[in-house]
Amino acid sequence: MMKKAIFAAIAVTAIGVSAGEVNLALNKTATASSTQMKGVEAAKAVDGKLNTRWSSSFRDNQWIMIDLGSAQDVGKVVLRWENAYAKEYKVQLSMDGKEFKTVSEQKDGKGKVETITFPAEKAQFVRIQCDKRGTNYGSSLWEVQVFAK
Fold it and tell me: Which CATH number does the domain housing residue 104 bear?
């Protein structure tokens, strides 16, 4: 009796991310201006899971910041918004976590998945400054992904 074996190779590429790209923010230290409640802390937005999230308090001018651990080339950020998204926000970079440079500014964000690209710069810290909410809730991100290009 002959036995057959079937092998399947599956490649999964997340929306907005090409195969081979390294998410520099994955499992790095994340902090935020506020947290809505226990269970939606900043670290949930960099854990690689699309069923956990960071959620701010229900107000404007909130932020989430990721410490990449060391200076990295950063040229692309993918934001995976929960239904509570920021309509107006900035992507900001810093070497010291205190002085930030805005590399992208969005005045009419739509939520869902937004991919922001810009000329790569060295940075250790990436901050998403959520200036105005798109809903009555706070700002909430399933995942923040950071890439070199």
Answer: 2.60.120.260
